[in-house]
Amino acid sequence: MKDGFMSVAAVTPQVKVADVVYNAQQSLAAIMQAAAAGARIIVLPELGLTGYTCEDLFWQDALLNASDQALNKLIDQTAQLDALIMVGVPARINAKLYNCAAVFCHGELLGLVPKKALPTYNEFYESRHFSVGPDATCFVDFAGHDCVTFGAQQLFSCSSMPNLIVAAEICEDLWIPQPPSIAAALAGATVICNLSASNEVVGKADYRRDLVRGQSARLVAGYIYTSAGWGESTTDVVFGGHNLICENGTVLAQSAPFSDEPCISQIDLDRLAAERRRISTFQTAAEARDAADFYVNYFNIALTPTQLTRNVNPHPFVPSNTIRRAERCENIFEIQAHGLAKRLQHTHSQHVVVGVSGGLDSTLASLVCARAFDLLDLDHEGIIAVTMPGFGTTARTHNNATELTAALGATPLEVSIGDAVRQHFADIGHDEAVHDVTYENSQARERTQILMDIANQENGLVIGTGDLSELALGWATYNGDHMSMYAVNTSIPKTLIRHLVAYVADKCESEELSAVLLDVLATPVSPELLPADADGKISQKTEDLVGPYELHDFFLYNMLRCGFPPAKIYRLARIAFDGTNGAQTYDSVTILSWLKVFYHRFFSQQFKRSCLPDGPKVGSVAVSPRGDLRMPSDAVVNLWLDQLEEL
Fold this sequence. Notes:
Layout: E1 5-10, H1 20-36, E2 41-43, H2 61-77, E3 84-93, E4 96-105, E5 108-114, E6 138-142, E7 145-150, E8 154-158, E9 165-170, H3 180-186, E10 191-196, H4 204-219, E11 222-227, E12 243-247, E13 250-255, E14 263-268, H5 269-278, E15 295-299, H6 322-347, E16 352-355, H7 360-375, E17 383-387, H8 395-408, E18 411-414, H9 418-428, H10 437-458, E19 461-464, H11 468-473, E20 486-487, H12 494-507, H13 511-521, H14 542-546, H15 549-561, H16 566-576, H17 588-604, H18 606-609, H19 638-645
Parallel strand pairs: 1-2, 2-3, 5-7, 8-15, 9-10, 10-11, 16-17, 16-19, 17-18, 19-20
Antiparallel strand pairs: 1-14, 3-4, 4-5, 6-7, 8-9, 11-12, 12-13
């Protein structure tokens, strides 16, 4: 289990109803196949050794005796496997019959977890044969095993992995208003296993998927759902073997109904633990109300490297599905525009001042201003779009800025900063030929002064254009473009800003606006503070200086949202950017180099984030000092960089 990843499997063996010997053979083959693929938790369907659809045959001792014998043989045959295994069996306990999950590891039957909710409606008639399982755990004799724990409130805790605590529930248990998995998660369970026999009807697969995914999100847990396959009786219903592995609201893997494919993925136990620590309202273990009522069985699995087969998204801020991406873009625009509209209403302002450079960030800010003005039924002439050409401004970006202003119907205003900055150089004794940080920042601060003073003249608000990626890296001039009166892009990463601008270019009805937006998207990202090259093109490209934004956005998401340490982020980045996920390819040396830059800049530039202007939060990652990121400006980065040096 490297970096907290645990390989798990939901498998549906072939079955023949009441043919216990055949079913046991198929179960063993499925378990061995999953173990060979690296799975360390293996879950089989409800009543899989006998078949779920045996009906009144469950009253026959011949069937039940065969099931007991098959379970014992299966436990012995898998004793050498380094895995926790769950198999569905009918269990005779104190002269009653229970629908149970038999949990075993290394040749030991750890416990029997009975089903709590017995459906007796529509096609289901379980209460005819089975009794409701008790909550409290007791010790019973079963199938030749003495003192086996029996009860719904059981946990299976891995001695070598503190974050691996497993619980089981069975099929209908999940579908009731208060599933047993709720109490189990509150008592510390990080992985829930569901042994199920859910038949297929039209639309049920989607509902089942949403149910499992939602439960994993609500419990901040991994959820392994295994269902009976089409080998069950088809007298009145058909089972499809729809298996699911979910983690905190995300479907990691699933087998489509009737596919007969094993479902294997890796659950990130460390991320689940970190997320539970972060969420103050999620109380587990000692704080859980009924934690003392759970009996804990201990097992052990060796700590071995885990090969990842789960998808590692290189662009975690950007949905890969085009429909979802468009919905995300529209939702973000609505948040941005309504946030700005509220601020304009509160300040009784009918003007905004935005510095338009012809770059991505100021373009998005201008589009947000236009939508906010539409919400308030204000004339776009109240949007004062200020172009401020300086030493590095190129004809391309200047033209895009003016054309964008015209396409939006905003009021254009041009103020050249050259003379003012040269006077400033003279005042402070700076040589204009020295293109250092003073040379660059003097321009940025002059532009901010102009915007602020125009806003005073017009009784308006200066709209900030800087984005989340820039703030994470500190790629902003303190008290220059770092400052505004309302910053609409403050929680949007650069990789997503591109899609927001492209979204408007695709859906807008103005050919003029679409054309300028597409050219902005094709322009290299640059602050344009250094003179253009001999051909009049941009000479200062941001990503050449601080690194590719798609890498930095990946680092940022996995550090802040997931809480991953540097070594884990490095490992995931190597997978995400190996060329198989549609992202640009980066070698390990390049990734490591820019990851070091990311950590150094993130820590050293916190002082800029500590005094950010107001702005709307649009996603789960934000750096506002009033909201998501409370970090001292003088924190030391050595721990993080030292880990990278050890790789």
